[in-house]
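Figure 2 data, in text form.
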Amino acid sequence: MKDLKYKIIIAGPPAVGKTSLLHRFIDNKFEEDYRLTVGTEFLAKTIKFKKKEAKLTIWDIGGQRRFAKIRRTFYAGTNGIFLVFDLTKKETFEEMEIWLKEIQETIKKKVPFVLIGNKSDLIKEVGRVFSFDEANLFATERDSLYIETSAKSGENVEQAFKRITQIVAERAGIKLQ
């Protein structure tokens, strides 16, 4: 069986929970303390499916504007993208088109992505700042998928990583299930 290896990047504005998503998926843990990602951080994990295994190298891309030039160098070789925004901060959702354009222009091809609305655990206390349908429409209009996650509780995190892996594999003509 040929090993499947995919590079997945997690991109989006600062403080939307990109690093927390990565660590929830890799280590199944959540840290309350926010720490700025300087440039990038990457970790690996293998996901097992019924027919195959896929080794993911997941790159957490720093979202601060001051990293804009350097982060472009980390996009090379990307197979799939998580575009992440904070469900409690509308302005982070409004940046999704800019992030997608930056990545695709740098890579010079259309790479599959999954739109992630993170911090679903905060909706009860903060409230929803826009509709599920609005984010879902953004994703479907761009031939993508929208998933709401919580890095804190772990809600939908594993499923999101499995879905992006399946999408990348399917676009390469590989069935994982």
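Caption note: The first strand starts at residue 4 and ends at 11.
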